[in-house]
Amino acid sequence: MNKLQGKVALITGGNSGIGYATAELFLAEGAEVIITGRNAAALQEAVRQLGPQASSLVSNADDISQLRTLAGQVGRPIDVLFINAGVGLFAPFEQMTEADFDANMDINFKGAFFTIQSLLPLLNDGASVILNTSINAHIGMAGASAYAASKAALLTLARNLSQELLPRRIRVNAISPGPVATPLFGKMGLPEEAVQQIAAGIQAQIPLGRFGQPEEIAKAALFFAADDSSFVLGAELIVDGGMATL
Predict the structure, then answer these.
(1) Catalytic sites, residue numbers
(2) Residues 181-193 pLDDT 10s
């Protein structure tokens, strides 16, 4: 307990799913937590449930103008930055539209890149930056080409930023979750029946026979956020029930 006592953590996309579960865990470990997202009402409800050590800021990950003003809104030093906001727009390669391609890249990679750039002046020396990627960066999956590419880009960003930020001892690491039971599956732009069919097919490929839970990914984020990982940088932790490794 209290692994993050006295630290300030910012979590993008923190009002639901993995982001919310991570906010809960970070708070339980003593941190002050700032969550961001695009929906003000959802953020307010999340903060109400999280309690007085949590606060929120409206920030859209695909709006560069908002990202450039984010540091001014935060206005205080940050010890942990969890880049979690993301979207998954899937389609067969020949049916992928430019708009959906851009959304995958703009939110998952470009938004992550410029969120870190904006907040870099606020990051304390020795801070931890955690990127939420995906096992789709490692495996082949029909319909996932644009999404997978955006997540693979985050993995290279973790390694390159770790090298570039060595003088400040800022550690950049990545978590690559497998299928997790989060609202992301409801944002695929597909009918509910199709989503359920996809989910059943994916579950059959997971050696553990189930989807992961957001709380399980949050524990991986805690490892990278805390001093437990003080000698780890530019690394990736795959949390996928064995899907990519067995």
Answers:
(1) 147
(2) 876 555 555 667 7
Q: Are strands 54-58 and 236-239 parallel, antiparallel or unpaired?
A: unpaired
pLDDT attached to residue 232: 97
4-8, 79-83, 125-129, 142-146: least confident range: 142-146
Query: For residue 21, what are its two tokens?
Result: 């579960």
174-183 residue pLDDT tens? 999 999 987 6
Predicted TM-score (pTM) of the model is: 0.93
Retrieve residue 186's tokens: 């409801």
Concatenated DSSP letters of 132-173: E--GGGTS--TT-HHHHHHHHHHHHHHHHHHHHTGGGT-EEE
Of 109, 131, 80, 133, nearest to 240 by C-alpha is: 133
Residue 65 token pair: 């103008």
Beta bridge partners of residue 238, listed in sequence order: 176
CA-to-CA distance for 206 and 185, rounded, in angstroms? Answer: 16
